[in-house]
Design brief:
single chain; alpha+beta; BirA Bifunctional Protein, domain 2; 2 domains; six-stranded antiparallel sheet
Length: 345
């Protein structure tokens, strides 16, 4: 029977997810963690690096795909690894793959391109996916784990190619996957899909001796609102007019003495309260099972969780911190000369 994807509801409780999926049993039945669940709890509360898998868009035309492939292989300077096991390099690689994958004749490409303010309704030709780990991770092992992931998920179904990048301080792999399989089925990537992928990818890294974990962010106390992809990319470039307006609004509200309450605050607070309740239950279960040290680590982990902040509250906190830092800087008096820099002799 084929697997079905299930969307996990927003604010899902800890006990409903894989980390402690022991389920709600009868009132008189003791709850226990399996060895695998205990290992994952240990990785989470002890700060093992979390794998990052991010879908960064996908071209809706053959030309867009060609441009992205040329970008990730630095216009032919980096090796590009394909699903056929080939290692390609050169300025013609991007055009070759677009032709080899038959993207020019992809279904849906004859729909008119969006003009003006109309949304472009053409389907994606490919999915652009990024696999990332913190600085210090072996680039070679990251690439090997990504290759295994791609083979397990897409081999003989979806065409794909990948490139390893190491120049930005932390290693990451760009994987481009053809959206429509060789059997004509379209790949849909949902939130639940990404979490399953993270868990499998972390496992592949651990097989190679790399410490890696894949706990949902909400279970790590990272309760936050979702930004639209375009806003996120502009924010990364420092060009987000949306965020700039938000900062100006928050600064004005702080000047007036209070922030305007946000409806999302109640939901964020309730979600975090549920997560904390489940972690406390987990601490009790760990203690009953004899894992006293891990129970103490989990208790400390819960105590260190930051308060759930809305986007506006987070901006206000950063602004106030910056103002405090400016005020704390020593100021030069009118007759005080600036410090003389040390000269190299």
């Amino acid at each position: 029977m084929p697997k079905r994807l299930v969307n996990v509801p927003r604010g899902a409780r800890l006990t409903e997810l894989d980390i402690v999926s022991y389920g709600r049993r009868g009132r008189h039945t003791a709850l226990e963690f399996s060895a695998a669940q205990i290992e994952q709890i240990a990785r989470t509360v002890r700060g093992v690096p979390e794998v990052i898998i991010k879908v960064s868009g996908g071209g809706k035309s053959a030309e867009a795909v060609r441009a992205h492939l040329a970008y990730i292989d630095r216009h032919g300077k980096l090796d590009l690894l394909t699903d056929d096991g080939e290692r390609l390099q050169g300025k013609s690689v991007a055009a070759f793959l677009v032709d080899d994958w038959n993207l020019e004749v992809g279904r849906g490409q004859y729909r008119p391109e969006a003009g003006g303010t109309t949304n472009d309704r053409r389907p994606k030709q490919v999915h652009n996916i990024v696999f990332s780990m913190p600085a210090g991770t072996s680039p070679e092992k990251l690439l090997a784990a990504t290759q295994k992931f791609a083979r397990e998920k897409f081999a003989l179904q979806h065409r794909y190619a990948m490139v390893l990048h190491t120049e930005q301080g932390h290693p990451h792999v760009h994987l481009v996957v053809k959206a429509v399989s060789e059997q004509g089925e379209r790949l849909y990537i949902r939130k639940a899909t990404l979490q399953h992928w993270r868990e499998d990818f972390a496992g592949y890294l651990r097989e190679l001796g790399v410490a890696a974990n894949a706990t949902p962010s909400v279970l790590r106390g990272r309760v936050k609102t979702r930004k639209k992809d375009g806003i996120y990319r502009a924010l990364k470039r420092g060009q987000s007019t949306f965020v700039r307006r938000k900062v100006e609004e928050v600064a004005e509200e702080l000047r007036r003495g209070r922030l305007t309450p946000e409806p999302v605050k109640e939901r964020l607070t309730a979600t975090q309260a549920e997560v904390i309740d489940d972690w406390r239950l987990s601490v009790e279960i760990l203690g009953r099972q004899g894992h006293q040290e891990l129970a103490r680590d989990a208790e400390a982990f819960v105590a260190s969780m930051p308060a759930a902040l809305t986007e506006k509250e987070a901006l206000a906190k950063r602004l106030l911190s910056r103002i405090a830092a400016e005020r704390a800087r020593p100021k030069l008096g009118g007759d005080q000369a600036p410090p003389v820099p040390n000269r190299v002799r």
